[in-house]
Amino acid sequence: MKVIFNADDFGLTPGVNKGIIKAHQQGVVQSTTMMVGMDAERHAIELAKQNPNLNVGVHLRFTTGIPLTGHPNLTRGQTQFVSYDELWKIQDFEEEVVYQEAVAQVEAFLKLGLPLSHLDSHHHAHTHPLLLPVIRKVAQKYKVPLRGSGLCHIENSVKYYFTAEFYDQGVSLEG
């Protein structure tokens, strides 16, 4: 059995980026997932290129930041994506719109010059029952694994565990 420690939110802030790189250099983190279109994206790319053994995937955003496609179905009339709580209440995502946004984020990542290792999503949004089938198609299109590919809160056979017990306990976005 192989255990992989993946660090989410690469590209969110310089502090998050530095923390991920430090954990990688100390042998704790083998992979990370990038939030394309966020403020510290360029900083993250520079660090990733300096650390070629770090596998980098895309941390698809559906609950943070501005959609790359700008489609109003993803923002519910605002400029930013809906919140995590709002996302789980939505029952009418347009599959094609979700697909286009996910592909836009992957394509934006590929233009940055790094190989794509895998996909996952911020706040595990891809485990939403309406998003998961679409994001699986995106993973298949790019021939990469989808981390945590079961539906949230539903029993599945995937051996995947997420913990947020440490969340917000003495940790800041800037270290």
From TrEMBL:
Record keywords: Carbohydrate metabolism, Hydrolase, Magnesium, Metal-binding
Q: Which GO biological process entries does UniProt record here?
A: carbohydrate metabolic process
Note the superkingdom of the native organism.
Answer: Bacteria
Q: Which InterPro entries match?
A: Glyco_hydro/deAcase_b/a-brl, YdjC-like
GO MF terms, alphabetically ordered: deacetylase activity; hydrolase activity; metal ion binding
Q: Which cofactor does it need?
A: Mg(2+)
Name of one Pfam family that matches:
YdjC
Name listed for the protein in its UniProt record: YdjC-like family protein
